[in-house]
Design brief:
The protein contains six helices and seven strands, in the order βααββαβαβαββα. The chain has one domain: 3-Layer(aba) Sandwich (Aminopeptidase), CATH 3.40.630. It is an alpha+beta fold and about 170 residues long.
Amino acid sequence: MRIVPAGPEHFAAVLALNEESVSVLAPLTRGRLEALHRRADDHRVAVVEGIAVGFLLAFTDGADHDSPNFRWFAERGAGFVYIDRVVVAPWCRRAGVGSQLYRDLIAFAVEQGRSRVTCEIDADPPNPASEQFHDAFGLVEVGTQWVEYEPGHPKCVSLRELSVTDARA
């Protein structure tokens, strides 16, 4: 497996991966993906035998990003890298793809001088697989909030963070 910078040649695969997991994350159109990609500070794809099997899209604290979860962290201080979304193909889960994407992002955070990595996971309705992964990786809950990515479909998210100092220990 290789982790490579995402580019337009990966967009079809990224959109397909996102759609496969849309029940646990925000929908994504090609236009939205292109806009996020232009503003992202880190957008990586996990590739196995020429096939994109996962991706991670992240923003540093000073980015121009409209996510309510990103804004929640931004209101509470600088020095973070926010994971907007991470998706792994269903047939590759539990094979280390997500862990490798996170390790790559932690290295990026350290390189950028950021002190923490942040994200959110669904709390209500719950996403037990994501909760287990993030707990194992050491991302701890620092808050919760209700968001509505689609009208009429509110959800409560668990806002998580990891000190990169702790991650390197």
